[in-house]
Design brief:
about 575 residues; alpha+beta; 3-stranded antiparallel sheet; 18 helices; 18 strands; about 35% helix; globular
Length: about 575
């Protein structure tokens, strides 16, 4: 008999919209009261991202088969007991290509999910037991693990819990708990960490599923520059990221693939698909596995936890546009040359500094930039849906990635990369030539170029004066990043305040004035703190005498030249 069923047990941590209290709810509860919750509230943002995708997989699956009233689409054949879609849909069989999108619009207007979500979950109740001898959630049975991977490699609670992440070789000194408690997990924690393990794990564990000859997965989410949209409450967040549109589902010509989450497959079927690259739908990607996992038969809550895991082959990354919740990078070299692969966010740079990657826009070679699917979806919502309240809605674009240790033998997770920007919808969707998105992208490029040609050049001259090695970039990087840190909130505020009716030229000039002041202040601060060595200067063969005073004068001239050029409408 199964125990700890996720439909009934309270394992999802949410923040109440009213009062901000944190509570735990079941899978069935969360879909009934989504409007009452502000957001997910797990232990980590990366964990919330993984759990969000599980919730989205439920919605993607249900509403790819049923409309907002709970009726099956007339062009889809449904199994009455399991609610499964029996065959992919050929576009020629569609009675109305806008049926999916009409469902989305009706759900948005209602502000709640219909009973069909609960009925679907009940139909799959037996596949949502955390502990079960047939269909354990996100796991294999011990017998299957023995056959597939000789039992797998042992994995402990302290490895699973990413707030600890203690390896067997090094003690985590600043863990939130100590001793034996590091391996102890409540069942609700265990569920959340299990979901996160399948999305983010690395490759440090040794055991593989038999016959795995290709590269092993470190978790599909691990390599994503994760991106999602946040609304005023959890219902809006789920809806804004729930893609219901035929044009996003067309594959293999005119065939529309069925949405198949992992719980609609047996454990052995879930392992098999990774050997055949059959994850060809969003619900499948949202619930993808990186490991075959099996729990100990006799495990009970309160005891130290351990399980057994084995690596699975990784999902194809190249041009896998089934994934909508990532930024994309064009590869100019390497094995994936001239192709797109997911691009992770940088841990040391604010996301707006890579506005072209985030929005999929470029000044030239535009075919080398691709907009994240979730932003293309939002464009469709706003343009085709004619939802008036969204036009001046300040949409929050959230970015989430996992930073690794840089070690290619393990890719151990070491930190989260979390960021967000807010923009008015009307500005965000204005991607026409000479529109707002194009203008902001140019402005960001001009900002970076201006910083390089003023402050960075000034600091490099000081480095020479101080006799630093020509390959020592520490001082230059330090001052560059200090300036970016100082202008970061100013840029975010400037972006937030943009309105479609504003003058683009006027707003650009506003930003350049802010930027000019910040660069001058940083340069002045460096000059005021000049050392004796800086003032003494050096004699150069070609350039003559140089000290911080001569470098500062050149710095101010460069500022005057750069900002005169920008204020006259120049594009660098």
């Amino acid at each position: 008999m199964g125990r700890y069923n996720l439909l009934d047990e309270k394992w999802i941590r949410v923040m109440q919209k009213s009062g901000g209290q944190i509570e735990k709810v079941s899978l069935k509860e969360v879909f009934v009261h989504t409007g009452d919750y502000y957001d997910l509230a797990g232990e980590m943002e990366t964990q919330d991202f993984a759990v969000l995708r599980v919730l989205l997989a439920v919605l993607q699956t249900v509403f790819s088969r049923f409309d907002s009233e709970g009726n099956p689409y007339d062009f889809i054949e449904i199994n009455e007991e399991t609610f499964q879609q029996l065959e992919p849909v050929d576009q020629d069989d569609l009675s109305d290509e806008d049926s999916y999108f009409e469902t989305w619009l009706n759900l948005w207007k209602k502000g709640e999910f219909p009973e069909i979500v609960q009925e679907y979950l009940e139909a799959w109740r037996d596949h949502f037991y955390l502990f079960d001898d047939m269909y354990p959630f996100y796991q294999m049975t011990p017998e299957e693990m023995e056959e597939l991977a000789d039992g797998g490699g042992q994995f402990f609670g302290k490895n699973l819990n990413r707030t600890i992440s203690e390896s067997n070789n090094k003690i985590a000194l600043f863990a939130p708990v100590t001793g034996e408690a590091k391996d102890k997990l409540c069942n609700d924690q265990l569920t959340r960490w299990l979901i996160m393990l399948q999305g983010y794990i690395g490759t440090g564990d040794k055991k593989k599923v038999k016959n795995t000859k290709s590269s092993c997965s470190k978790g599909w989410l691990y390599d994503l520059g994760g991106i999602y949209l946040k609304g005023h409450n959890l219902f809006e967040t789920l809806m804004l990221n729930c893609i219901l549109s035929i044009e996003f589902d067309k594959q293999d010509g005119e065939i529309i693939k069925a949405q198949i989450p992992s719980w609609e497959r047996s454990p052995s079927e879930n392992v098999d698909i990774y050997f055949h690259n059959h994850v060809d739908n969003r619900a499948g990607l949202y619930t993808s596995w990186s490991r075959a996992v099996s729990f100990m038969d006799d495990y009970h809550e309160g005891n130290p936890f351990s399980c057994f895991i084995a690596k699975l082959p990784e999902i194809n990354h190249v041009g896998n546009f089934t994934e909508p919740m990532t930024c994309w990078g064009w590869n100019g070299s390497g094995p994936n040359k001239d192709q797109f692969t997911p691009k992770k966010h940088r841990s040391d740079e604010a996301v707006w500094r890579h506005f072209n990657v985030l929005m999929g826009v470029g000044k030239e070679n535009k075919e080398r930039f691709r907009r994240p699917g979730i932003l293309s979806w939002y464009h469709k919502i706003c343009e085709k849906g004619s939802i008036r309240e969204l036009q001046h809605f300040k949409v929050i674009i959230c970015n989430v990635s996992m930073r690794d240790d840089g070690n290619a033998t393990s890719w151990s997770p070491v930190d989260e990369i979390i960021d967000e920007i807010q923009m008015e919808t009307a500005v965000l969707i204005d991607d026409n030539k000479d529109g707002w998105i194009e203008m902001i992208n140019v402005l960001v490029d001009n900002t970076k170029n201006c910083i390089e040609k003023t402050l960075v050049q000034f600091v490099r001259q000081i480095s020479v004066i101080r006799g630093y090695d020509s390959k020592d970039y520490h001082f230059v990087e330090q001052e560059r990043e200090r300036l970016y840190l100082e202008i970061d909130q100013s840029f975010r505020g400037w972006l937030y305040e943009l309105e479609e009716t504003d003058s683009m030229n006027g707003k650009a000039l506003d930003w350049y004035r802010i930027l000019k002041g910040a660069i001058l202040n940083r340069g002045n601060e460096i000059f005021r703190n000049a050392s004796f060595t800086d003032l003494k200067g050096i004699q150069q063969k070609e350039k003559g005498f140089m000290n911080i005073a001569t470098a500062y004068n050149e710095f101010k001239r460069n500022i005057a030249v750069q900002f005169k050029f920008l204020q006259e409408g120049g594009k660098q």
